[in-house]
Amino acid sequence: INTGVTVGTKVFVGGIDFALDENFLRKEFSRFGIVKNLKLCKHHETQKSKGYAFITFTTPDEAKRAIEEMD
Q1: pTM (predicted TM-score)
Q2: What torsion, rounded to 10 degrees, do the Cα atoms 46, 52, 54, 57 define?
Q3: What is the DSSP string of 1-13?
Q4: Helix (H, G, I), strand (E, B), or coil: what is residue 30?
Q5: CA distance 59 to 48
Q6: Torsion on CA atoms 67, 62, 22, 4, rounded to nearest 10
Q7: Residue 55 carries which DSSP code?
Q8: The pLDDT of residue 10
Q9: ∠ CA 5-49-45 to the nearest 5 degrees?
């Protein structure tokens, strides 16, 4: 999993294994703070993961910590 750009409290996460789901990501990223929203991007017809997600935390510090520790 590669974390990247953050905008305030929202973090872009790329390079996600296609087999991972929202529950796994929420569990993994909850250790950095409260996950306010998680959007695993999926193909609209097949509903299979595209391998990236956007995760929103409650504070910018939580988002920053997730990037620093997951990168």
Answers
A1: 0.86
A2: 120
A3: -EEEEEETTEEEE
A4: helix
A5: 30
A6: -20
A7: E
A8: 94
A9: 125
Element containing residue 36 per DSSP (H, E):
strand 35-42
Sign of the CA dihedral with 46 first, then 50, 51, and 57 last = negative
Q: What is the residue-level pLDDT of the chain in tens, covering all 71 positions?
A: 555 656 689 999 999 999 999 999 999 999 999 999 999 999 999 999 999 999 999 999 999 999 999 87
| Per-residue CA distances from 53 to 3, 15, 48, 71 (Å) | 10, 9, 13, 15
**Can you give the pLDDT at residue 4?**
60
